[in-house]
Amino acid sequence: MDPQQRLLLETSYEAIENAGLRIEDFGGSDTSVFVGSFVKDYEQVSLRDAHYQPRYAATGTGNAILANRISYFYDLQGPSMTIDTGCSGSLVAIHQACETLRHGESSIAFAAGAGVILTPNTMMPMTALNFLSPDGRSFSFDARANGYGRGEGVGFVVLKRLADALRDKDPIRAVIRGTGICQDGRTPGIVFPSTKAQVSNITSVYQKAGLCFDQTAYVECHGTGTRAGDFVELSAVAATLAANRSQDSPVIVGSVKPNIGHLEGAAGVAGLIKSVLVLEKGEIPPQANFMTGNPRVDFQQCRLKVPTDLCQWPLPGLRRVSINCFGFGGTNAHAILDEAEFHVKRHRPLNIGRLAALAETEKIMVEEYSWTPLPQLFTFTSPDQHGVVRIMHQYADHIWDTLEFKTTEDLNNLSYTLNCRRSQFDWKGYVVANTQEELAETLDSTDVDKVVRSKTRPHPKIAFLFGGQGAQFPGMGSGLFYRFEVFRSSLEAATQYLLKHLGSQFNLMTEILKIQHESVIHKPSISQPATTAIQMGIVDLMKACNVHPSSAVGHSSGEIAAAYACGMISREDAWTIAFYRGACAEQMSIRLPGPRCQGLMCAVSMSEDGMRGYLSREGVSDTIQVACINSPKSVTISGDASGIRLIAADLKERDTYHRILDVPVAYHSYHMKYVDSEYKACLQDLPMDFCPGIAPMFSSVTGRRMELGVQSSRYWTDNLTSPVLFSDAMKMMLQESRPDVLLELGPQSTLRTFVTDILDDMFAGRRINLAPKYVSAMARGKNEAYTVLSALGALWSQGCNVDMQGLVKK
C-alpha cells in the first residue's frame, strides 16, 4: 500500500479527534472526501519488476484510492475523489469540499493533501524544467530564489457548515469565508503563472463572499521560491488586497515552504493549517530563509511586507487571512479565513444554567458549595491495552507541564472532551479526580492491570438492585445534589410533591441536607421517603446517562424504587407509597401496647433454617421472627426490641456476626399488623391496572417475577408486613434475566455481602467470569459524586453504552 494512503488514514483519525468527533458516528453518513496529490512514487517503485506484481498493486497505488480508501475505512457515502491540479491540489480539494457543504451534498467534508518522496525518478523531470532549487531549499520572495526545495507531508482538515458546528458545539478552529478556483488559460508557457488570472480569482472570491480587502492583514502565499512565480503572485496580491493600503499599513505576506519544504499536492492544506495557527495566536511568524527581497518587486511601493521578526496582529477587530495557491498547469485556488472566536461569540448565546431556576434558598446552598472542586470522570480508550496506559501517561505529563495555567473549568472541559468527544475502542480505562494534581497523580500511577477489554454493546443487561430501610444517614445524597443537575431536579420534585400533595410537615430536601447534629433522618416518617427519593434520583441520573435496567430487584422498601425504575409505577405513586409507609411505621409507638411498643431489627450471618431453629430453641419465635432472607448465609430478624437485644448479646457470646439495624421499627414482623389496614387505606387511590413496565421486576415479597398487582395497595401492604425473600428473588432474576452487571442504587452498598453470597452459591464450581459484575453507586464514608462517577466508569469499561453527556457539569 502506498505510504500516502497509510499516512492519510493516520492523519484522518488525528483530524477527527482534533475536531471532537467520533469515528463510530461516521458510518453510513454522507461525509465527503477530497484529497489533493500528484506524486506517484510508490507506483513507480512497485512497477520496477515486470515479472512480479503485488496482488493488490492496483488498489495499493491508485491515486483515486487516496480518497476512496478513507471513505471505505470509515464507511463514508458522500462524494470521494482525488484531485490532481499540481501544487494547488489540496486547496482545490478544500474548495470542492466547501462547495459540497454549500450545496447540501454532505454534512461533513474531509479535505486533505499528501506528498511523499520515495524515488528520485519524479525529481528528474522537475529538474529538467528548472522547478527545483540546486540548494535544496526554498527562498520565497528572496533575491536568492532559484526554485523550490521539495518537502514531504500530509495535511488533513475536517469541515462543517458553521451553523452545524455551532449547533453541535464543535471546537471551531477557523471559519472559511470564501473559496474559489480558476485556470490561467493560455500563457507564454503552460507552466508560466498568470497575474491576471490570479487577480481575477482573488477579486471573485472576495466579491462572492461579500467582503472587502481592508480587513485582511496577512496572505499565506504559494511562494514557490522562483523569481518568476514570486513576482507574478506578489503582483496579484499588490493589485488586490494591498491596492488601497497605505505604506504605513502594508499587507504582510509569507509562505510556509522555507520552513517545511514545498509539499506540492499538500502545499495548500499546509498553508491553510499555518494560517489557522496565525489566526489563533494573533501572531505572524518571521519568514524563514529571507534576507533580501526579490529585486523585481518593490515591496514598499506595492505596500507589501515580508516579516523578519515575530509580528503581533497589525489590525484591530476581526482577524482575517487569505491563502493563495497555483498549480504548474495553471489551476489557481484562493481561500479566505476568519478567526473562529469572532463568529462563535456572535452566534453562541450565553449558557444560562439551571441555577437561575432554583428557589432562592436552594440557589444559595448550591452557590455556597460551588467553590469546592467537584469530581469528574475521565475515560481513556485505545485499540490496544498498552495504548491506554500510554495515553494516560501522556495526559499526566501534559497536566504537570501546564499545571500553573490550568483552572477548574479546564478540568471540566477535559472531562467533557475525553468522555463525549473521543472515539471508542475495545481497551478502556478510567479515573475519577477532583483536581488537576489528583488527576495527574492517578494517571501517573495507572498500569495495564487497571485496563479492561470490552466491546460497547447497545443493550447490555444491567440489573438494578435497591436496598431497604436502615441505609439512611445525615447528609446522604448531598454530594450528588451539588454535582448533578438531574439528581437535584428529581429531589426538588419529590420535595414539592410531598409538600403540596401529601401534606408533608417537613421539607424533604432540607432534612436530607442537614448536618449530623441537626438531623432527624432516622425517624421513619423521614427516612423512608428520603431513602426512596435518593434511590429514584440516582435512577433518573442513570437513565440520563443511558443506563437502563434490564431487570430489577428491591430489598423490602427498595421495591418502591425498583418498581419505578422498571416503569411499573409513576414517580408520584412511588413518592406516595414511600411517604405513607414511613408515616404509618412511625405510629407503632402508639398502636403497640405496653413494653412491646419498641421494635428492632438485626442482621445475622446465619442461614434461614439455622435461624429458625435457633429462635425455636430459644422459645422466642412468637415475638422475634425471620424478617428477611438475604442470602444463603444471612438473615434479618425483627421483633420486640428487648428480645432483639438479648439475642444480640447471645450471638456476641457465640462469636456470630450480627448488626442491629439503624431502624426503630420492627418491619416485616407481627408489629406491622397494627398498621397494615391504615397503610392500605392510605394507598387506596393507587391505580389498579397492571403495567408491564419497561423491564421485569422480581418481587422480594413472592420471590418470583412480578406479573400482577404491583400497583395495588394490597401488594405494598404485603411488602411492609411479609418476610423479604430477597435471596429467592435474586436467584430467579439471575436465572431468567441473566444480567451482565448488578448495579446497586442507594445511599449505601448494603446489598454487597448478600449479593456476593448469592453469586458464590449459584456459580460455585463454575468459571468466575460467568458471574455478573457487582457495582455499587454509593458507599457511606466516600464522596458520593466520586462513587457514582466511578460506577459509571465501571459500567462504561464493561461495555455499557453510557451517554456521557448526562455527566456534563452545568
From TrEMBL:
SMART domains: PKS_AT, PKS_KS. It comes from the Eukaryota. Keywords: Phosphopantetheine, Phosphoprotein. Transmembrane segments: none annotated. CDD domains: PKS (cd00833). PROSITE patterns: KS3_2. Residues 1-339 form the Ketosynthase family 3 (KS3) domain. One of its GO terms (molecular function) is fatty acid synthase activity. GO terms for biological process: fatty acid biosynthetic process; secondary metabolite biosynthetic process. This is Highly reducing polyketide synthase sdnO like protein. It comes from Verticillium longisporum (Verticillium dahliae var. longisporum).
